[in-house]
Amino acid sequence: MFAASTGLFEHVKADLAGPGTAVMTHSQLEDMLGLAMREVTRSLFQDHLRLRAFTEVRVADVVDARGVERTRIERGRTRILGTVFGKVTATRIAYRGSGVADLHPADAVLNMPGGMYSHGVAKLAAIEAARGSFAEAAQRVNALTGAGVGYRQVLELAVGAAGDIDAFYDALVPVPCTDTTLQVLSVDGKGVVIRPEALREATAKAAATKGGNKLDKRLSSGEKNGRKRMATLGTVYDAEPAVRDVDDVIADPDRAGGGDDPERRKGPKARSKWLCGSVNDTAAEVVAAVFDQAEHRDPEHARTWVALVDGAPHQIDLINEQSAARGIGVHIVIDIIHVLEYLWGAAHALHETGDKTIEAWVARAGRTILAGGAVQAAERIRGAAMAAGIAVGKNKGIDDAVAYLTNKAEYLRYDTALAAGWPIATGIIEGACRHLVKDRLDITGARWGLAGAEAVLKLRALRSNGDFDAYWAWHEEQEFIRNHQARYRLTA
Question: Looking at CB atoms within 10 Å, which of 10, 65, 134, 201 has the fewest?
């Protein structure tokens, strides 16, 4: 049964022993052996399938899930399988009945895929599609396997590969935590350029209202907004409280000697991080999924829940709606970095360009806010503006900073957060937006279909969570259930 593969291997041995390879460089030998041994391995795979076909024994009773028997057989039924070594042919017995689809028990033993390409090829396609463009992924998969997949096949394989991710996380057993461990939630959004047919209804209407492009060669101001669909990302992670004070976050610029304090205490360290993202689902649905994951980890609501946001009212409203509906007390904290950006806007209005005192001014205002004095800081900014002759409504930087600090004051209680050991920055979800969305879905010239964008976003989140290998084993089990087990009547 293995004569073909044995002959190929002997041929490779003969080539290596011949004079032609004696003058090859090591890289030339690598290339030659890579191609030759891939064919040897493909032939071994084919010979093994031939052996299985030769030894396959007819099963006595083959009954489908509806109880319909297959009473006739047809030997020699073949199908092509694209493997990581190349294409092979599987030959097996087909079990037939009148007016019903044929069944192939041998396919169930092999856990054959629903399509032509093996789970190994699909796994490579999923990994490569999450890394780069579908065209590059196809080139990479073909270079590694010789499977002969195209752009469209890689897209379809990636979509299929991501199909069980939500169910995988629903079934995943959370890591045990004590009641003192913080549970941190965060959400954010990033626009993705989508093909017109995949835009949300409101965005499509807004784009249609604007009419056609003003220019032939490029988009004008505001036109790109009508081509984007919002991808919403969410995260949940565990962290042990880390108590700090103002000096641990922003050094006192007026301290004698100057310089940063080398003994600063660090904030809470994230662990058991879970990321999710969706272009298809609304922000409300993603926030609900974040709360589902959090409740999965803490069903008794015994832990302290902290929600980190960038201050967007829509995010805060959705978090408050979910917490009220579920009866959970959630402490909402606005990211300190976003607050500091407002301070810088006001600082530039109050200082000359290049003024060396601007950094100290921002540090003092930031320390006031960290100490729980957001409203006090707003009053000081307004007072400094009036002293500089800047009236209300005459400078956007100052007006925005004052309004932000005043309106968001209840979410800027950093004194409480630092004393309780909570995190006060959204670095994890901000980094996720860059890594999951911008680095892949926002590449130059990309226009996404909804299915492809959703699959890539979920696969990148899965890999970022470090769960890809565990997921893939689970995904193959689900493929077996869908493609094979569900088609047969189970017996006790």
Answer: 201
